[in-house]
Amino acid sequence: MEKIRRNKKVIAAFLIPAILIYLCFELIPVIMSIYFSFNDWPGIQAVALKFVGLKNYRNIFHNAVFLKSLQNVLIYVVISVILQVPLGFGLGLLIHHFKRGQRFFKAAFFIPMILSVTAVALLWNFIYFPTEKGILNSLLIKIGLANCMQQWLVNPKTSLMCLIIVSTWTSVGYYMIICLAGLTSIPNSVLEAELDGATGWKKIWNIYIPMLWEPLKMSTIMVITGVLKIFDTVYILTPTGGTNNCTIVPALLMYNEAYRYGHYGTGSAIATVIFVLSAAVSILSLTLMNKKESIEY
């Protein structure tokens, strides 16, 4: 068995399929997208590409809708990180502490993550329905707060936050599982030794957070990269980008430019900006979070 593990041909045989899949579905599409971003092309095979240099990039950065989409997605990122990571890890700590009913609560909080995005979005569409037939508005009427009724996905003041709540509800169970995995990897003897004299928030801040720093970093990066390229939830709930583009995000604008209007060069330029922005924000986040060391055990 050891000889097989050291055999370079066997190693290559297992690596090559994964490398080919990565090249075909990840690296080559990224390179082609960057290439298309320097061209003007309507997406029709019979029409030749016309090289325009940086024109597409200049156009999008002078486009008020694109700038609004960047503003929206950055707000989306900040609030999602503030909500999803602490909530996920808070739930993980609670479930780990209370042994009774662990399996039920793990399943209950993780179920939204395994549902299709379409099903989740349609469910929340019923909740946010703008008339008294909507679940949220109906609830407000029943508890005597009819004056608080809103057209939740139409009102520019509430629509983006409504989408953030949907994403949080869907994803928080995933980060709960990551937290639980991190907690189960810590030996009980270490926890018991560290917990002497530590209670409440002091225990969480000085013991649990340093011990779970690596899972926290991973979760933060996953939230950031996931939100920066978010499309499906926004498209299903607010397909036009909301009132006055209040919920437009770069991925939705990219889709509209490329597939609705046939501006593949502009759409590819937006896709490239999303890629660069995701990489830059992820590197910045990792750099900042690496300044704090995790506890070794």
Please tag this protein with its features.
297 residues, mainly alpha, two-stranded antiparallel sheet
Give a structural overview.
The model has no long low-confidence stretch (mean pLDDT 86). The longest helix is centred in the N-terminal third of the chain and has 34 residues, at 64-97. The protein has 14 helices and two strands; from the N terminus they run H-H-E-E-H-H-H-H-H-H-H-H-H-H-H-H. It has helices at 2-6, 8-36, 55-61, 64-97, 102-114, 117-127, 135-142, 159-184, 188-194, 200-211, 213-228, 232-237, 250-260, 264-289; strands at residues 39-40, 50-51. The protein has a two-stranded antiparallel ribbon. The protein has 297 residues and is an all-alpha fold. It starts with a helix and ends in an 8-residue tail after the last helix.
| Shape designation | globular
Which residue ranges are poorly predicted, with pLDDT under 50 across at least 5 consecutive positions?
Answer: none
Widest sheet, order of strands: 1-2
Order of helices and strands, N to C? Answer: HHEEHHHHHHHHHHHH
What's the tally of helices? 14
Number of strands: 2
Q: Rounded to an integer, what's the Rg over CA atoms?
A: 23 Å
Q: Which class of secondary structure composition applies to the elements?
A: mainly alpha
Terminal CA distance = 31 Å
Please tell me the overall pLDDT. 86
Binned, the helix content reads over 70%
Beta-strand content: under 5%
Largest sheet: 2 strands, antiparallel
